[in-house]
Amino acid sequence: MVDFGEILEPSSRAFWDDFDYDISETNESDDKHFSLIEWEWYTEDKNEPSYASISTFYVIEGTGMQDFLESALIKRQRPIGGLKNKNVLMYHVQTRNQIILFSLENNLNISAVVAKYFKKFLEISEKVYTFSLQSKIHYKNEETKDVFNSLVIIRSINSEIDWITEIKSPNFITGIAAGVATIRFLNNQHYSCYIAYTDPLNELDAFIAKPILKLFQEIKIDCDTEYTSKYKDSSLLYM
Questions:
Q1: CB 91 within 8 A of CB 80
Q2: Which terminus of the chain has a smaller tally of CB atoms within 10 A, N or C?
Q3: Looking at residue 6, what is its pLDDT?
């Protein structure tokens, strides 16, 4: 496993030593963000579901992935819960005893604290994987020419896949993925984080999605092998 100390701590509080957040240290803007966070369950009795154990917990986050997730992964599944008035939804794949959490939020003030709402699920999960989609402009590397000629750059923390290399400083993970990794690290439990860097498009297209779907299949997510975007190449217009 990668030494956790090698990950730089961003100012967004994406990595925390614990989740006992001192509200007195926040400013007025932070207070507003926290007051907007409310988890709700869509179960029949509106209560939090109970599981003895979970095989695998996945976190998939990033903007511009809604059609991709709905077409290639979610299909007609119904979520079991989510953040009220936010683009964060949780699904339970009963046939595989998996939980998948999708987040299309780009507000790190919200993302950083979301993990505590499903901490108990993380603690009973055998394995945890996170996937984050980010713009290439956030990726820092000396191999600029080779890297930026690629449609997608995928890096990882604790990778279990041969063709994906470890992320290096000064790059780091943020958002819900960082909070999840912190919980699992502090509990000395399995976690692998994957970050895909690509050009800042509004939606994923078929070419960018291909290596991402390959990754998903290798970490045992039930998904399609291909994705057909409803957008035309680079025009971002509906077909």
A1: yes
A2: C
A3: 42
CA gap 52, 16 in Å, rounded? 27
SS (H, E, C) the chain: CCCHHHCCCCCCCCCCCCCCCCHHHCCHHHHHHHHCCCEEECCCCCCCCCCCCEEEEEEEECCCCHHHHHHHHHCCCCCCEEECCCCEEEEEEHHHCEEEEEECCCCHHHHHHHHHHHHHHHHCEEEEEEEEEEEHHHCCCCCHHHHHCCCEEEEEECCCCCCCEECCCCCCCCHHHHHHHHHHHHCCCCCEEEEEEECCCCCCCHHHHHHHHHHHHHCCCCCCCCCCCCECCCCCCEC
Q: Which of 14, 165, 164, 3 is nearest to 103 (CA)?
A: 14
Q: What would the mean pLDDT of 74-93 be, rounded to a whole number?
A: 90
Domain boundaries, the chain: 26-35+52-218
Tokens 């509004």: give the residue: 202
Residues 28, 32, 37, 38: what is their CA dihedral angle, to the nearest 10 degrees? Answer: 120
Residue 13 pLDDT exceeds 80: no
Q: Taken in order 199, 100, 109, 191, is the CA torsion positive or negative?
A: negative
Closest CA to 74 of 84, 60, 64: 60
- Other beta carbons within 10 Å of 25: 7
Tell me the mean pLDDT in the region 166-187: 90
CATH class of the structural domain 26-35+52-218: alpha beta
Taking the C-alpha atoms of residue 8 and residue 21, their distance in angstroms, rounded to an integer, is: 20
Amino acid making up residue 183: I
